[in-house]
Amino acid sequence: MDDIRFAHAAGDDWRRILAECLERLGALGPDHRLGFVYAADKFAGELADIASALRVATPIKDWVGTVGIGICATGQEYFDRPALALMVAAADPEEYRLLPSLERDTRPMKNAHGQWIERSRPSLALVHGDPRAACVPQLIEGLAEEIGFVVGGLTCSRTNFPQLAGEVNEGGVSGVLFAGDVAVATGLSQGCSPIGPVRRATECDGNIVSTIDGRPALDVFKEDIGETLSRDLRRAAGFIHAALPVKGSDTGDYTVRNLTGIDQRRGLIAIGANLAQGDPILFVRRDKQAAEQDLDRMLRQLKQRTRGAAPKGGIYVSCVARGPNLFGPDSEELRSIKHALGEFPLVGFFANGEISHSRLYGYTGVLTLFL
After folding, report:
1. How confident is the model over 102-141, as pLDDT tens digits?
2. pLDDT at residue 204 is higher than 90
3. For residue 239, is it left (φ>0), alpha (ψ between -120 and 50) or beta?
């Protein structure tokens, strides 16, 4: 991966802003084979037309992308505004393969690229998923078992939910696989901070938790969030969430899930994930200061891993609840990345769920760098 370029623009007419982006990219050569496109959800119904226009206007046939309520670029957020962001790269044909749409298992990937996978030993898959598809978490786990590391995010839209990986599709996951010799670095930044200890779900049925540490679940929840918030549980539900610690993590990693229901009469809580008896659980707060600190931690670690050199390019996937909703209205989240790592081509989107390693996260930011 080399000669990575990017461009972005905002406006109501996708043809006009696409022309702006293409002009900023400049003349592309035959080695430019791979492109990424992220579009505001206003253009969800036109993503196939955008991809067709890109294939006509550039030498690039392999385009990957999706749509989001917000679009990311270097130091810039287009949140709830019609916009496009493009990134293109010169790539050897053996450095990547488009990942066909997966809806049940990874067999289509093996059928399409089995020999290349054996030859190139891919270690990273960058994928986009349909938030409506119940199969997505299992597909992410299956890809991680086959490939090693998976990054990306779920389409975030108020209309259609298209993904682009050569062709436009909906449902399941699709994206691009990178050969093992493509140099990359990835980081995950949490947007919530714990407000209580790690506890155990001692009685539960699917996503409904009856008791925690042997006590009524709602009593434990109120104890952890404090007396003030306990008086107004509807307010608490807006920024207090459940978190599930990741088994075997040596960094205290956890996946955040929304509170989906509270039964005050029976002392029950419901969360956006199924639990089994004995599973660990804790409660976390969506918190600007904690998010800023963890983003800074992630960026420092990535800078150490890159030895301070500016990356060739990058993809950033952030939760739709972050960006201006958490960091502020003036592109602070993307400016933090630029300030820490320097000026380099970066595109991405605000997602309905973020993917890192083998898991689906929420309220996080996932940064992938090409080195």
Report:
1. 999 999 999 999 999 999 999 999 999 999 999 999 999 9
2. yes
3. alpha
Answer yes or no: are the C-beta atoms of 264 and 218 closer than 8 Å.
yes
| Per-residue exposure over 333-352, b if at least 16 CB sit within 10 Å of its own CB, e if not | bbbbbbeebeebbbbbbbbb
Task: Enumerate residues 6+ apart whose C-beta is below 8 A from 146.
Answer: 106, 109, 110, 117
Q: Where are the beta strands (DSSP E) in 224-335?
A: 240-245, 254-257, 259-263, 268-271, 280-286, 313-319
Amino acid at 227: E
Q: Residue 169's CB: how many other CB atoms inside 10 A?
A: 18
What is the model's pTM?
Answer: 0.92
Tell me how far apart the alpha carbons of residues 131 and 320 are, in angstroms, rounded to a whole number. 13
pLDDT in tens, 229-287: 888 887 777 789 999 998 877 667 899 999 999 999 999 999 999 999 999 999 999 88
CA angle 265, 266, 272 (to 5 degrees): 110
Torsion-angle region of 65 (φ positive above 0: left; ψ -120 to 50: alpha; else: beta) = left
Q: Is 148 exposed, middle or buried (0-12, 13-18, 19+ CB in 10 A)?
A: middle
Q: Which two tokens stand for residue 312?
A: 């060739």
Query: What are the structural domain ranges in the chain?
Result: 2-189+291-370, 193-285
**Order of all β-strands in the sheet with 163-165:** 2-10, 83-90, 32-40, 62-68, 163-165, 167-169
Separation between Cα atoms, residue 312 and residue 184, nearest integer Å: 10
The two structure tokens encoding residue 226: 């404090």
